Amino acid sequence: MSEVNHDLIIAGAGPAGMSAALWANELNINHLVLESGTEPGGQLLKTFNPIDNHLGVAALNGNDLRDVFFRQVEKRTKSVLFSRTIRNVDIDSNRIQLENGEKLGFRALLVATGVRRRRLEVTGEIDLRGKGIILSGKKQAVEASDKDAIVVGGGDAAFENALILSEFAKKVTLIHRRDEFSARREFVEEVLRHPGIEVLTNAQVVSFNGDSQLKAVSISLNGENREIEGQIAVIRIGVAPNSEPVTGLVDLDHRGYIRISSNCRTTRKCIYAAGDVANPVSPTVSSAVGMGATAVKSILEYLRNN
Ligand SMILES: Cc1cc2nc3c(=O)[nH]c(=O)nc-3n(C[C@H](O)[C@H](O)[C@H](O)COP(=O)(O)OP(=O)(O)OC[C@H]3O[C@@H](n4cnc5c(N)ncnc54)[C@H](O)[C@@H]3O)c2cc1C
User: Fold this and answer.
1) Which residues contact 56 (CB under 8 A, 6 or more apart)?
2) Mutational test site, ligand 1, from 43, 47, 63, max ligand atoms within 8 Å of CB
């Protein structure tokens, strides 16, 4: 097993990690970016709508913005490795361990691992992925043409998907486990008014049913079992922070987000965090990019003094 030391290891090559890499180069910090995916971008790779709310760029979609970001990063640093998932951190020896067993030493670690979509953890959810359970209503709306569509969730993303799918589907059923919604009022009002969308509250998904293709969803509605026909489904039940590599080492909030100071430092002196994994309040590209820069500026101070 090889062992290499770096002044700074950056975990994740989403907007926060890319910004941090740029700033590490700017400040002459010896660094390495480790990304578990096969390409940079993080959530940008799953964003199919235009992104025109990050100052200075009007991108057609997330991929487009990712290309703009990574072109700039690539010109400045070649220290980005893909298919490298950080599994855990040994704080006594200042080493991270990757899923492939490799160990790497660091003086400072920046966790920029973002968030992932929450799963329902029910039967059929994985097996029927791509066989009716789709990734994005925005990107795959036409697949709902003349079908019954099901959307699970009660936030903005769920309501937005229900509205998009309603333009193509015969009928949309929105299933939510509570009787109130976190989605913004305009979305809720539009969905509740929509003749093609039925909203079921206090309803829990029990399973996605079908062999090679989704056929129906079993739910528990106010305690009673019911089956809803549906050949297309989108699950939007929120996100969870990818804070596992440092769980137990730094303070997390009750949802698992990393707690940081205003200079992006965690409760461990040598561990910093930036982007969505530490920012439930403003999970945006602009915040992630800004936090990447803040963290690296603070890390420079740390490296000088330790
Ligand atoms: C559909 C959608 C639409 C959006 N629209 C907008 C918008 O219009 N405007 C806006 O500002 N924001 C938008 N966002 C949010 C924006 O994409 C995020 O705020 C931003 O991507 C956060 O960047 P990040 O670097 O913190 O995290 P992420 O983008 O989540 O990147 C984290 C990276 O870390 C990697 N990683 C995870 N765990 C590990 C590990 N253990 N080891 C190594 N690597 C790891 C991941 O593979 C990923 O590449 C949208 C998000 C979605 C999903």
Assistant:
1) none
2) 43
Spacing of C-alpha 144 from chain mean position: 24
CA of 305 to the centre of ligand 1 (A): 31
Distance 34 CA to ligand 1 centre (A): 15
Q: Does 112 lie in the same domain as 164?
A: no
**298 vs 73: CA distance, rounded Å:** 20
Task: For the beta carbon of residue 36, count every other beta carbon within 10 angstroms.
Answer: 18
CATH of the domain at 175: 3.50.50.60
Cα Rg for the chain, rounded, in angstroms? 21
User: How much is the ipTM here?
Assistant: 0.99
**Residue 173 is assigned to a structural domain of this protein:** yes
DSSP 113: -
Convert the pLDDT of each residue in 241-263 to its tens digit.
999 999 999 999 999 999 999 99
Return d(Cα 143, Cα 123) in angstroms, integer. Answer: 23
Residue type for 163, please?
L
Q: According to the model, what pLDDT value does residue 275 have?
A: 98
| Number of residues written out for the chain | 306
Q: Are 257 and 279 in contact (CB under 8 A)?
A: yes
